[in-house]
């Protein structure tokens, strides 16, 4: 059902979200200088491309949907695979979708309020966010073809929005606005921890490079289209991100960028004049496309995990007519709908895990008719409740967790090279590429802990391992 263009659109549509428009300043804050910041952005693009190529090889070896799940299952057994499915399905995917939908709601409602009015009410934001989620769910449950067509349209809009910013930057450069590029490497050199945190921020904007592996069973001619889609999407996005950052600095100094609450909005205000409203529209367009792509792949994790017996079998069912994993998609809806009704994520992000886990076990109990006690997971909920209310900290938390699994997946590729040297590989990358990704993953996970230990890294690791408390009594 998913063509080459649809595959490229899925990767581009998931990667280009709110990050490049709203908060690229996280990279520059940790880099300490403009030149170092651009090197980190370029490094993020190269690392994401290497990761995507490694995933392309192992994905064509094991052409099953579910992203990292079937790879970890084949290489290291059911426990690492279950821990990935647990972490991704219960918290990472649903909370990401909730945060994206809230971002959409805030930008969509902002033009309706003038400067004298207060910001949109919490109720209005939540209702708009729920509407976004329900719309995304309807599209994903209706048809795979419909989903990929929408992804193609929204991916085009995302690219167009960045092209507008880039053209604005070219115009400003033609006018001689190059003063902010002078002495690009002046300032304090970043340390190991700052470089790792800068990569966390940059890789957040690149998040989504592995999304095609989640739907590989639905990709037409995957042995050919998977590597082509990966290379095409990564080159396109990396180039757009680099040029967009250049455009930002044609109108803002380093300090002005760091002080801006929304970098793209500040750029639009200085370059577009009366057309400044275009930026919020494109942010909404971009975020909705990311919501669509994230939801499209999220249901496949639950679906594949259930098919292997790790989750309830009801989640392995397909819609009889539309052939979409509707129960698995709706599982993610219940998480986000519960979150929208109960807490304001911008004010209480640490409650995301509480309501996601609660909804998960309620649904699992109803599906299996095995009513396990919710008290057993209260300790793990308490861990999540103390996660700091800070956007950068949340990025660090999720990036730390995800790069554990990215590194494990590339380690699985190296394991297959050693144990199965003669196994057919429709795509084979130079061995140095997965080695670089593994080394980078270890550095990204360990560098912040060694240089400046913080408790939330321990919380992240403990939450991942908490899945074992449910694996042994209910799955094993």
From TrEMBL:
Enumerate the UniProt keywords alphabetically: Membrane, Transmembrane, Transmembrane helix
Subcellular location, principal: membrane
Any idea where this protein resides? Answer: Membrane
**Stored Pfam families:** AA_permease_2
> Which InterPro entries does the UniProt record give?
AA/rel_permease1 (IPR002293), AminoAcid_Transporter (IPR050598)
GO cellular component, alphabetical, reads: membrane
| Topology in membrane | Multi-pass membrane protein
Annotated protein name in UniProt: Amino acid permease/ SLC12A domain-containing protein
Q: Does the keyword Transmembrane helix apply?
A: yes
Q: Which GO terms describe its molecular function?
A: L-amino acid transmembrane transporter activity
Name the residues that span the membrane: 6-22, 34-55, 67-85, 121-139, 151-174, 229-250, 271-288, 348-367, 397-417, 429-449, 455-474
């Amino acid at each position: 059902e998913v063509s080459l263009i649809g595959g490229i659109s899925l990767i581009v549509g998931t990667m280009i979200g709110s990050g490049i428009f709203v908060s690229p300043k996280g990279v520059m804050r940790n880099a300490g200088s403009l030149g170092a910041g651009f090197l980190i952005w370029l490094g993020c693009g190269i690392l994401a491309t290497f990761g995507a190529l490694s995933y392309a090889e192992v994905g064509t070896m094991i052409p099953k949907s579910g992203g990292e799940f079937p790879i970890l299952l084949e290489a290291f057994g059911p426990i690492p695979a279950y821990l990935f499915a647990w972490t991704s399905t219960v918290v990472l995917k649903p909370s990401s979708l909730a945060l994206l939908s809230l971002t959409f709601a805030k930008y969509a409602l902002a033009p309706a309020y003038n400067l004298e009015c207060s910001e949109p009410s919490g109720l209005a934001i939540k209702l708009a966010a729920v509407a976004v989620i329900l719309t995304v769910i309807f599209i994903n449950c209706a048809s795979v073809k419909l989903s990929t067509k929408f992804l193609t349209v929204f991916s085009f809009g995302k690219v167009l929005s960045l092209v507008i910013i880039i053209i604005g930057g070219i115009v400003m450069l033609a006018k001689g606005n190059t003063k902010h590029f002078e002495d690009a490497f002046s300032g304090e050199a970043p340390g190991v921890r700052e470089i790792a945190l800068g990569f966390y921020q940059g890789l957040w904007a690149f998040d989504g490079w592995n999304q095609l592996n989640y739907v590989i069973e639905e990709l037409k001619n995957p042995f050919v289209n998977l590597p082509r889609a990966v290379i095409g999407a990564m080159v396109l996005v990396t180039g757009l991100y680099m040029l967009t950052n250049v455009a930002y600095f044609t109108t803002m100094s380093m300090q002005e960028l760091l002080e801006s609450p929304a970098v793209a909005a500040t750029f639009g205000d200085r370059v577009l004049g009366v057309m400044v409203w275009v930026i919020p529209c494109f942010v909404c367009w971009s975020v909705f496309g990311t919501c669509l792509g994230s939801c499209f792949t999220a249901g496949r994790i639950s679906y594949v995990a259930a098919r292997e017996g790790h989750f309830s079998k009801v989640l392995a069912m397909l819609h009889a007519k539309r052939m979409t994993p509707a129960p698995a998609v709706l599982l993610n809806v219940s998480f986000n709908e519960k979150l929208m009704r109960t807490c304001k994520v911008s004010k209480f992000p640490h409650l995301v895990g509480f309501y996601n886990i609660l909804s998960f076990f309620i649904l699992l109990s109803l599906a299996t008719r095995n009513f396990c006690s919710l008290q057993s997971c209260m300790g793990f909920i308490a861990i999540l409740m103390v996660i700091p209310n800070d956007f950068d900290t949340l990025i660090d938390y999720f990036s730390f967790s995800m790069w554990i699994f990215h590194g494990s997946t590339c380690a699985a590729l190296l394991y297959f090279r050693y144990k199965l040297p003669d196994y057919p590989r429709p795509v084979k990358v130079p061995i140095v590429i997965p080695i670089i990704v593994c080394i980078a993953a270890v550095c990204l996970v360990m560098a912040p802990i060694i240089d400046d230990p913080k408790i939330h890294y321990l919380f992240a690791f403990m939450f991942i391992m908490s899945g074992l408390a449910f694996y042994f009594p209910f799955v094993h």
